[in-house]
Write a structure and sequence with these properties.
The structure is a single chain. By secondary structure, the chain is an alpha+beta fold. The chain has one domain. Helix content is 39%, strand content 16%. The protein is built from two helices and two strands, in the order E-H-E-H. The protein has a two-stranded parallel sheet with strand order 1-2. It starts with 13 loop residues before the first strand and ends with a helix. The mean pLDDT is 91.
Length: 62
């Protein structure tokens, strides 16, 4: 990323898991646990969950 655009290195990284309504809650938690090892913010998003959309919006505006 640094070679492409050095300013991107300073940006906050978010991992976004979409369509989480398509997997079981257990599968979602397993995926989140695995990804948490990367030390990044992890958000879930479903178009069927207004709260998840609002949470993403808030994170992007920070």
């Amino acid at each position: 990323m640094h070679k492409h655009n050095p300013a991107l290195v300073e940006k906050k990284e978010i991992i976004l898991l979409t369509k989480y309504d398509a997997v079981t809650p257990e599968e979602l938690e397993e995926k989140k646990k695995t990804l948490q090892q990367l030390g990044k913010s992890i958000l879930t998003l479903s178009i069927y969950d207004a709260d998840s959309i609002e949470n993403l919006r808030k994170q992007l505006l920070v």
